[in-house]
Amino acid sequence: MTRTGHETRNAAPSRTRVVISIMRIFLLIVVTLGSYAVAQAQDLPPGKGLDVMNGACGVCHDTERVSSAAKTREDWVVTVNRMLSKSNAPQVSPADNTILVNYLTKYLGDDVNVNKASAAELESELVITTAEAAAIVDARKANGNLKAWADLEKVAGLDVKSLLPLKSRIKF
Length: 172
Ligand code: HEC
Fold this sequence. Notes:
Number of helices: 8
Bound molecules: heme C
CATH superfamily of the largest domain: Cytochrome c-like domain
Number of domains: 3
CATH class of the largest domain: Mainly Alpha
Distance between the termini: 78 Å
């Protein structure tokens, strides 16, 4: 089978175009997966303790393993102690340990029902001040159960913005 000169001239550029297209698709996949990985890493909200967590917990596994967990303070205390007592775990000062547990409890905690939780539980699980927890309980007593996020916004003395990253875990 003989090819005309015309066909031969076209064959090479079209092969090149196919190769370029494949490379483009490959590049797109790499970029997409890369940005997905970055998005995953950024899932952890910035907050006091994120740096400590990245330093202490990122030594052995990626933070995705941490961010996919949701635990109460009690369970985070157990997990952090278990992790940091593994051989070759980094040394963490007691102060940093507390910061770490606060961060994990606040941002990777379990669901909290703001109508059912006691003041002590609100303080512990939402990592808010004693006064803020008392303000929620007072609002509950004064106006009955909080029905939605908008009711939480009305609680005087509560820095509700600090709870925004936890919004999906706050139940009414
Ligand atoms: C010395 C290595 C090491 C360090 C440091 C470490 N981990 Fe782990 N982690 C592991 C290993 C190994 C596993 C899987 C086996 C297991 O669960 O013990 C794991 C599993 C986990 C799990 C899933 C299991 C569970 O109990 O929920 C969580 C969550 C976790 N780590 C959180 C953390 C946090 C938070 C820190 C930082 C305080 C941390 N890890 C630091 C080695 C480590």
